[in-house]
Design goal:
The protein has 262 residues and is mostly helical. It is built from nine helices and no strands.
Length: 262
């Protein structure tokens, strides 16, 4: 969500900076910024919708494949589970594969944590591992859920709705575009409107940086400065391109009458 707001702030400000540099009047800048905000929001919706739906479809296919593997290759899936136990810090050796017709055959898995577990702790760890293995070996539904969680990092409650994900991105982008759009609804001069939108956008970027640093436990000042510097540099480049484009148009318009006169 924060990234959607950030996209709206940066892209819309760069857009208005470019057209103001190109000499567009206030009404034209306002129309451009509104159009850019709507187009960007719709693009964000479409991109997030397609990405989320594709991710869900891929995950659905992987879950179906995992379900088929559990039905057809139960023993191999249980062996894979015991290996995953080792990776998540449940050490032990020779776990019993209940539900496996070859349950007398066992496989030893060594993990780095084995070296730190000894005495009663090692015994408890092995007992825990054996209880878990017996439970999941006798419960195919539970085995499917834990394999999905451990292999893909997904649980049923985490599956996102493509429509809600797209709508969230659309809304966040549109909100982010407002600080660069609203000033031109009241400004009499495009450059004054650009200054106000720049200040409003800067405040928005600082807030986004604060939220991002809070979520990532990062450096608040660094996050805010990164956003501000990148946007300021981008705005300067966009304004410069607009000025250059306007100069080219003026030169072209002055050359054509001279050519006709000659």
């Amino acid at each position: 969500m924060v990234l959607g707001v950030n996209d709206g702030l940066v892209s819309t400000f760069l857009l208005v900076a470019g057209v103001v540099g190109g000499g567009m009047d206030v009404e034209g800048v306002l129309l451009t910024s509104v159009s850019g905000a709507i187009a960007g929001a719709i693009s964000m919706f479409a991109g997030e919708y397609v990405a989320t739906k594709s991710q869900n479809e891929v995950m659905k296919g992987e879950i179906k494949l995992e379900h088929d593997h559990i039905k057809k290759y139960h023993a191999e899936e249980m062996q894979e589970l015991t290996h995953l136990f080792s990776l998540i810090g449940i050490p032990g050796s020779q776990p019993h594969l209940c539900g496996d017709p070859n349950e007398n055959k066992t496989t030893t898995y060594h993990s780095a944590s084995n070296s730190t577990v000894d005495g009663s702790s090692a015994v408890e760890a092995r007992k825990l591992r054996q209880r878990l293995t017996r439970y999941y070996g006798s419960n195919s539904d539970a085995l499917l859920k834990i394999m999905i969680a451990l292999e893909f990092g997904v649980i049923d409650e985490e599956v996102r709705s493509p429509v809600l994900a797209g709508a969230s991105s659309l809304l966040m982008f549109f909100i982010g575009s407002l600080p660069s759009t609203i000033p031109f609804a009241t400004a009499a001069d495009p450059k004054m409107g650009l200054m106000v939108s720049g200040l409003a956008c800067g405040v928005g970027l600082v807030v986004v940086g604060m939220v991002k640093s809070f979520a990532t436990r990062g450096n608040l000042l660094l996050a805010a400065m990164e956003n501000l510097l990148i946007t300021a540099a981008g705005g300067a480049v966009a304004y410069g391109i607009g000025v250059g484009f306007q100069s080219l148009l003026e030169k072209k318009s002055s050359v054509i009458p001279n050519a006709k006169a000659a």
